[in-house]
Amino acid sequence: MPADHVVVLTTVDSEAAARTLAASAVEARLAACAQIVGPITSVFRWEGEVQTGTEWRIECKTPADRAGALEEFLNVRHTYDLPEVVVMPISGGSPRYLGWLVDETR
């Protein structure tokens, strides 16, 4: 059973970039809200080497039917060559909040 609402995650390399990307997604009505978490330490393999970097995670809440447009929006505006964009289903929650989430993205 597919979820009606999702959280779309991405990471960026600065708090300023996170604030800009989060605000632009909400302004475009692709996300009802976006929370910024960080700084966080990321360990990843890139171009054959294990690397460590400081990042900020953006958690965008949106209806599932807006996830594809939000993913495209994030990919176009992202500064990384290969941005992390992960969509996670919301399996439940406050009906009032989930209704608000839909209303704010229309």
Automatic annotation (TrEMBL):
GO biological process, one term: response to metal ion
Domain of life: Bacteria
Residue intervals passing through the bilayer: none
Pfam family, one: CutA1
GO molecular function: copper ion binding
InterPro entries noted in UniProt: Ion_tolerance_CutA, N-reg_PII-like_a/b, N-reg_PII/ATP_PRibTrfase_C
Protein family membership: Belongs to the CutA family.
Protein name stated in the entry: Divalent-cation tolerance protein CutA
